[in-house]
Every structure is written in C-alpha cells, then in structure tokens.
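REQUEST ID: PR-0412
SUBMITTED BY: lab tech R.K.
PRIORITY: routine
TASK: structure prediction, single protein chain
INPUT:
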Amino acid sequence: MKHLKVLILSASGGAGHLRAAEALHRTAQDLDLPIKTENHDCLDFTSSTFKRLYAGTYLSLVNKTPELWGYLYEKAESKPYRKKGLIRLFDHFNYNRYLRFLKSNKPDAIICTHFLPFISISNEIRKWGIETPIFAATTDFDVHQYWVDPIVYRYYVFHEESLWQLQSKGIPAQRISVAGIPVMPEFLSKTSKRVARRSFGLDERTFTILVLSGGFGVGHFEDIVRSVGETLAGFPRRQFSLIVVCGKNVTAKASISTMRFPQNVHTSLHGFVTNIAEMMSASDLVVTKSGGLTSSESLVKGLPMLIVDPIPGQEMRNADLIVEHGAGWKAINLANLAYKLRKILGTPSMLKNAHKASSTLARPYAARDILTDVYRHIQPRKETRQ
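STATUS: complete
OUTPUT:
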C-alpha cells in the first residue's frame, strides 16, 4: 500500500510547539499506519533575521513584560483575527518561498502545532492551487482566537472545555476532536520511581521534587529554587531530593551551584537535558510554569504540579484548568509558593488526590489519536482523487 504524506508544521515561537510537532513525527514512525511524516519549522523558510525577530519578540514579552503580554493576549482574543505586525511582515517578505515549498512537497495532509503556518498563508494557499487539508493540533488547554481560521479543516484540542471555547468562536463541533496535546513517546513509559531514582543516584525512598526552569525570567528561577530549599529546611526530620533543571540558562545554573542547601536536602543540578520524562518518573511533585507541553507531560506522568507565577494569557488559563480539576496548585508569588509547598508536604492526602486527578486529566495517546484521525479523514479523499 502506498504511504500518504503528512507534513507537520510548527514555528519556533516557544519550544512547546516544536516539541508537539516532534512528538507527532516520532509517534508516526511507530504507528501501524501507511503514512510518512515530515517535520518542519515554517520560520526556516524565512530569513534568519526574521526568525530571530519573531521568536525573540515573544520570549522578550513573556519574560520581561508578562503583564503586557497578558493584555495583548486578551485584546487579540476579543475580536476576529486580522493580519498585522509581524504576521503581515511575514506575508510580505516570506510567504512566496513557503508556498513554493508546500506546492512542490504535495502532502496529503498538513498538521500545524502553531497557528503561524496556516494563518500566514490562509488567503493565498488555495490561489496557488494547493488543496491539501489543514489540521490544527492546539498546544494549550485554552484555544486562542489566533487559531481560528476558515482554512482549517479540523481541530484537535485538549479538553471538553477547549471544545466549548472553540465552538463559541464559530467552529462547528463536528470539526473539533478532544484528543489532547501530543507528548513524546518516552513519556508513556511506566518506569517506577525506585528505578528512575536509582538512575540518578537518588535515595529510592526519599520524597523527590523536580524544579524546571522553562519560561522563568533571569534571576527569578534562582529565587524559586532558594525558596523551595528554605521551605524544605522546615521539615528537619525528613529527607528530600531536589532535582533542578536550568535548561539553557547558564547564569541560573552557575548561581544555583553556589547556593548552600539544608542538610536534609540532596540536590541534583542540571543544565539542558533530554531525559525530562525519566526525571518526572523519579519525582513526587514538579515545581514549574504551566506551559501547555510541560503541563501535558506532567499529567501523563501522573505528576502533580505546583505552578509558580504563571504568565497572564495561556499559562494562566492552563493553570486554572489544572487547579479546577485538582491536579495541582497555583502559587502567585514566592511567599505563596512556600505556603503551598508546606501545606502539600504536611498533608499527604493532598498529594495522593492530586496524583489521581493528574492521571484522570491526562491524555497520553494524543499523538496516536491525532494521527489516526487525520489518516481516517484523508484516506477517502486520496482514494477519490485516484
């Protein structure tokens, strides 16, 4: 049987979109479906200057002026999308090269894990004779107005509430599937805590907290790690393991490496890593931001989240859904973080209930379900054209 070609497109305006695209691409390789996938960042079809400008503008806003980002997020949500700013700039200088790629590639389906790959060309793609159906795999628990475009054939969302939101924006329910957010295949492994802890040289029986840096501004992450350490010092009769992942923030790693932690806290400090799934398997609690991918990965691992200072906009809405379903807690500042952590450690039932809620809310097979549904929709179209 001839394989159908599925093009997976994203944009490097936040690592989560790229991780979701890679999760779909890797999952497709293990599926018993006659499809072949390619994975591309649509910004690779632009100049390097524009790519840095687009990604850098987003990161600068959310890290340096999160309140402004939240305002812009809400402002853009209140009315139908119109191309402007960087998107219009993308159109003017870049879309011809991008459209030529799509036309020559001739995919049977396009799956987008970011809105840019389709909204940037939605007015032009059909004029170029490209009739490929476009599927949108959203990457937050909320569905922003930017995702809404007539060019999208079908949407995949995280939760029934996400479906309701998208339907309220004029998308018929029959064009929406509650599938979840794609996570990498390794997050589906059932590694026990003891085995995972042993691989990191941690005590197999010690309560373990994972602290992730993704999205925290410079300086703030160090304060969070210090606050966690000071809070754990308040339980001198208990032993703790603290796994700290600084990512590419070398300044934070250097600063944290000089910190003195309480004697009852064994610290494992890391920079950029590729084994977050294994670290989550080793942990009892994760302290982090509430990005869509990190949240989905934590839920799949059944790992309760203590969410710190989520940025206004999509992170706040992700956090709200997690807290509403009992899968985690939201700390609005450092003092609140210390209070919430003390409460969790002093009330074992809170963690037990959150663990169950996390597993209930999780959608571990989102990548498989999305790819299977895409194939189900494009296979009859292919047969009709042959």
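NOTES: The chain has a mean pLDDT of 88.
REVIEWED BY: pending
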